[in-house]
Amino acid sequence: MKREIAFTLNNEEIAVEVEPNWTLLYLLREVLEMTGAKEGCGVGECGACTVIVDGNAISSCLYPVMEVEGKNVTTIEGLSKEDGTLHPLQQSFIENNGVQCGYCTSGMIMSAKALLDKNPDPTENDIRVSIAGNICRCTGYVQIVESIRKAAEKMKNT
Amino acid sequence: MKGYDYYKPDTIEEAMKMMSTLDGAEYIAGGTDVMVLIKKKALSPQNLISLRNISELSYIDTDNGLRIGSGVTHSRISESDFIKRHYSALFDAVSNIGSVQVRNVGTVGGNICNAAPSADTLCPFLVFDAVVLIAGQKGEYQLAIDDFLLGPNRVALAKGEIVKGINLPALGANSGSAYIKHTRRKAMELPIVGIAARIDIDAKGHPNDWKEAFRRIDDISDMLRLLEKERFVCNDARIAMGVVAPRPIRAKKAESALQGKVISEGLLDEIGRIAASESQPRDTLRGEAWYRREMVHVLTKRAVLMALERMIHADSSNNPKTS
Ligand SMILES: Cc1cc2nc3c(=O)[nH]c(=O)nc-3n(C[C@H](O)[C@H](O)[C@H](O)COP(=O)(O)OP(=O)(O)OC[C@H]3O[C@@H](n4cnc5c(N)ncnc54)[C@H](O)[C@@H]3O)c2cc1C
Ligand code: FES
Ligand code: FES
Question: Which has the higher per-residue pLDDT, A148 or B221?
Fold first, then answer.
């Protein structure tokens, strides 16, 4: 039994038909074909599906789609500018080797964005806590922490 | 995926009415337990009734004790400076649950209703003598957390009842608390052992500014020696242990061994030993029983020490120190 829900997705108001038992991740990937958020574990353990809802990083694989009604959702697709300019976090991940296979990257960047939106001047520990729920099997995390730290510096100075 | 329908009531009354009329219905709060169970096919509800939009479940009220609505998320609790300073053991617990993503949606109500043996808020609630506020068919009633917890994933809720909130009584003037979650990695882990302690000190007969002398001490052994020398007595104490029994339990013999005694290093060691003897751990993949019992001994002593340290530094701005 389909229901219609309306919410803001990457600054655009949208209305979509959903099944009440979908997760937000299912809507994004399988229906809206926005494949930036990844499905890793599907049960909240890996962070690959992280998106921002009303300012908070959440695991979209556990988020009932019906709760999105009226909310403000930001995904990795919403970070770059219309002319294609990347967000400072995205640019910094490229420049500082924060990306290897890339599977964790969109989740990492969304966790980092939620952190920097609340706390533009994080300590290394703040950064590590913010991505503790995001698993990376490639980088060993050092370059990721560095990418976030350098992005934060750049964002403060502009 | 088998389908379910999803309802979003605005009031407790409406939610309870839905529960009594819909077939195969379950309540869902943050869903960090429920959605995982559904995905693992351990639960297949026909209807989910969401408690997330019920505003009467999302309060934090801090006069004369602490009252927390069941729908308050772990993140919101960890952002409360009042809770961090005064109900430090609860702060310790919620700030280490899962990940940011889990804390942003997971609620205290969900944590106590799911009642996993490893649920992190349960030991702190036991040491604060928390009372669970329940909305039932015949109106509201209260149950001590100790009576609310029945066993692994079992609580004393009748079908359709909703936990409205958790009430924590006001603390004594010289009180401190801590929760230690013993894990192999720093995040995204359930505890191998969890220990909470709260201690109240009797400062009668000591000068008003007695804490000053203690604040100048860095070494914890020196702090203990001075407490013993000046004959500071434990007024009241609570110790709770998680993952060492089917549900989190109080170490009541250890508590009474502290009661009315002069604090000393020897006494704390004794308390740790007694608490270990009260634990009933099992061998599991995540830790063997003998190891868990050892850790109860060590961590009980450490948790009481942390509680004492926080009691002494209660008014300072970096209290509690967190690692
Ligand atoms: C990746 C991951 C890591 C985790 N790490 C930890 C951890 O470190 N420590 C820990 O303790 N837990 C952990 N959890 C478990 C879970 O996040 C917590 O137990 C959380 O507090 C559950 O809250 P919720 O609001 O999501 O509950 P839900 O899943 O919505 O509900 C849990 C249960 O409680 C019932 N319920 C919820 N609210 C009420 C109410 N007000 N009245 C009556 N019944 C109610 C529901 O019907 C359901 O049976 C983790 C979970 C995940 C997915
Ligand atoms: S896919 Fe959501 S946390 Fe792993
Ligand atoms: S870059 Fe491969 S998982 Fe992180």
Answer: A148
Residue ranges in chain A modelled with pLDDT below 50: none
Strand order in the sheet with B233-242: B175-182, B193-202, B233-242, B249-250
* pTM of the complete model: 0.96
Q: Tell me how many degrees the CA angle B269-B270-B274 measures, rounded to the nearest 5.
A: 120
- Determine the 3-state secondary structure of A112 from DSSP: helix
Q: Which ligand is nearest to the CA of B185?
A: 1
Q: Residue B321: what pLDDT?
A: 58
Amino acid identity of B230? E
Q: Kindly write down the DSSP assignment for every residue of A16-33, as one continuous string.
A: EEE-TT-BHHHIIIIIS-
B175-312 topology per CATH: Enolase-like; domain 1 (3.30.390)
Residue B191, pLDDT score: 87
Question: Domains in chain A and their CATH numbers?
Answer: 3-78 (3.10.20.30), 88-156 (1.10.150.120)
The DSSP-derived string for B29-72 is: SS-TTHHHHHHTTS---SEEEE-TT-GGG--EE-SSSEEEETT-
DSSP-H helix ranges across A21-134? 24-26, 88-95, 105-118, 124-130
Contact B69, B96 (CB under 8 A): no
Instruction: Let me know: does B105 contact A53? Beta carbons within 8 Å.
Output: no
> What counts of helices (H) and strands (E) characterise chain A?
5, 5
Q: Letter for the amino acid at A95?
A: E
B56-168 maps to CATH 3.30.465.10: yes
CB of A59 closer than 6 angstroms to any ligand 2 atom: yes
DSSP B307: H
Nearest CB to B36: which of A1, A44, A58? A44
Instruction: Tell me the CATH class for B5-50.
Output: alpha beta
Buried b (16+ CB within 10 A) or exposed e, B126-163: bbbbbbbbbbeeeeeeebebbebbeeeeebebeebbbb
According to CATH, where is 3.30.390.50 located in chain B? 175-312
- Collect all residues of chain A within an 8 Å Cβ-Cβ radius of residue B48: 20, 64
Looking at the complex, does the CB of residue A6 fall below 8 Å from at least one CB of chain B?
A: no
* ipTM value > 0.90: yes
User: What residues of chain B lie within 8 A of the CB of A1, using their CB?
Assistant: 3, 5
Half-sphere exposure of B165 (CA within 13 A, CB side): 15
